[in-house]
Amino acid sequence: MRASIVLGMGTKSRVAVGAGISTVAVGLLAWARVRKAQSALEANRIRLNETLPVHSKWWRDAAKTEGELLYVAIGDSAAQGIGASAPRNSYVGVIADHITAATGRSVRMVNLSVSGATVALAVADQLPRFADLQPDIVTVAIGANDIADFDPARFEEGIRTVFSALPDDAIVADLPCFYLPWNEKKVAVGNAILRRVAAERGLTVVPLHDTMKRQGVRGIVTQFAEDLFHPNDRGYRVWASAFLPAVTAHVVRRFPRRPVAVTTDGAAQQHPDAKAS
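User: That's the sequence. What structure does it adopt?
Assistant: Structure tokens below.
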């Protein structure tokens, strides 16, 4: 029946039917590709989620390693290094390595961060553990997980509580760049709150958002992990670069590099006050 109808049509009608069928076919193909991409992205997210306990254990073990300086980090999955090829390649690990290079001192890393942490969860879980520590340097990057269900009043209350628990020389990052316009509007409000509260406390705020934004399209394409949310190794180096000027100024001022003694035979010798790494 359908064949006879088509045969009885004029040329224009047959062309229209053919075009309609082609449009439907293209649409179905495009939809299939979208679904395939969504499935692959979900599989990538699941795979990265499976690394959460691995990263958490690595940081717990790292905290047991003694060091001359104590570096404490408050944060979320970015501080844990989810998406990096190894936990040490998170921005926290990069900063710790830089502290050692800048001061010549070994560093003990205590990473209090928890994957998925919001500001409120950091208050509940990380601040009680932070209270028992006497860090030489503190970095904070928290609040990105608040953007999905952003409430300015709740965010400010939490940020005030976090910042009130920090030493005066703590270094905090503003919220990262989300790139998508509807999220960036909320990020702008959050960063205004964060910077205002930090200024009241006299805390140093490093420009994580602008540092990421300056990476442009190249950053979007090359600096995110396979879940398209967490940074990869390159992305974490960009995160670290936002912190490093302030971190360097802080540690060099407080812990200037020790002079290296030279023996009579010309060999370098570690300063006698230095502890073994």
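The longest strand covers residues 69-75.
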